Amino acid sequence: MSKPPTSLEVILTSGRTIEQGITLAGMKISKDARKAIAICFMDPRDMSKIRLSDNQNVRIKTSEGAIVVKAMTSKDAPHEGVIFMPLGIYANWITPPGKAGIGVPLFKGIKAVISRTNKSILEVEELLQELMTNEEKK
Predict the structure, then answer these.
(1) Which contiguous run of DSSP H or E holds residue 65?
(2) 3-state secondary structure of 46
(3) What are the pLDDT digits (tens) for 52-62?
(4) Total structural domains in the chain?
(5) CB atoms < 10 A from the CB of 66, how many?
(6) Long-range contacts of range 95-99, CB-CB < 8 Å, 24 or more positions apart?
(7) Phi then psi dihedrals of residue 36, to 5 deg
(8) Residue 2, in any domain of the structure
(9) How confident is the model at residue 104 (pLDDT cuts 50, 70, 90)?
(10) Domain-located, residue 1
């Protein structure tokens, strides 16, 4: 008997959400803002393939890096093989730079691997500290 997969190849797309807009009217680093952007929305069939439930932490890895966020069932399903993340530091962490030479990152159509994880979601302050540390090393 074979084990169910623990990861899934997907296409990542990102954009604005209403919830994100509401929370960004206040502080971008508030707990409410983090809840609105440290999340990805998945087709329920994809969630079942890797045995995920709403509010479980997942690791999303792209060519640019990896980040841990919460998985939620998408209200816009069906869209098997595609995950959606609200724009913000969590999506930006794994968004590759654009190739057109004009500095616009690729916000759509990013190849990614999503997997279950027991790791915690970093706070925005922790991500910013890691970013500054990485810049100092360059």
Answers:
(1) strand 65-73
(2) helix
(3) 999 999 999 99
(4) 1
(5) 15
(6) 95/14, 95/62, 95/64, 96/62, 96/63, 96/64, 97/64
(7) -80, -20
(8) no
(9) low
(10) no
Tokens for 40? 């990805």
128 backbone dihedrals φ, ψ, rounded to 5°: -65, -40
Q: Which domain holds residue 90?
A: 7-137
pLDDT tens-digit readout, 10-53: 999 998 776 655 555 455 566 767 788 899 999 999 999 999 99
Question: Tokens for 57?
Answer: 């932490």
DSSP 44: H
Which residue is associated with the tokens 């999303």?
60
Report if residue 94 sits inside a domain: yes
Residue 81 lies in a domain: yes
- Token readout for 123 is 């706070």
Q: What is the Cα–Cα distance from 117 to 57, expressed in whole angstroms?
A: 6
Instruction: At 130, give phi and psi (nearest 5°).
Output: -65, -40
Query: How many Å apart are CA 127 and CA 65, to the nearest integer?
Result: 12
- What CATH number should be reported for the domain holding residue 33? 2.40.40.20
Structural tokens at position 62? 């792209």
Tokens found for residue 127? 């991500």
